[in-house]
Amino acid sequence: MIHYSILPLETVYEGIEAMKSSTVDIVMNGVRMQVEPVNAQQAKIVRLISCNPQDFLNPQYAPGRMIEFQPMVRESGE
Questions:
Q1: For 17-32, what is each residue's pLDDT tens digit?
Q2: pTM (2 decimals)?
Q3: pLDDT of 31-50, one tens digit each?
Q4: What is the largest CA-CA distance in the chain?
């Protein structure tokens, strides 16, 4: 990405360190995606991370769509 601006880089990137990513990578129905949790059972799809082009055509996996999921916690040693 190229960004042309008359502003100094310090101004353009001011506060970028404070930005916190609250996304989580999950696999749902065999499709890897990045979601932003809303509460314990719901999340908003941020983007798909898939090699299958058909996944991107499926409206169920459209970015911005709310999904319900049950997070799994793995015990150490499994």
A1: 777 778 889 898 899 9
A2: 0.64
A3: 999 999 888 889 999 999 98
A4: 53
Contact 47, 34 (CB under 8 A): yes
Q: Measure the CA–CA gap between 66 and 38, rounded to whole angstroms.
A: 9
Per the CB < 8 A criterion, the answer to whether 47 and 64 are in contact is no
The 3-state DSSP class for residue 40 equals coil
64 sits in the region (left: phi over 0; alpha: psi -120 to 50; else beta) called left
Q: Distance between CA atoms of 41 and 67, rounded to whole angstroms? A: 8
Please state, in angstroms and rounded to a whole number, the distance separating the CA atoms of residues 36 and 24.
Answer: 6
Convert 30-46 to b/e letters by CB count within 10 Å (16 or more is b).
ebebbbeeeeeeebebb
Q: What are phi and psi of 32, to 5 degrees?
A: -80, 130
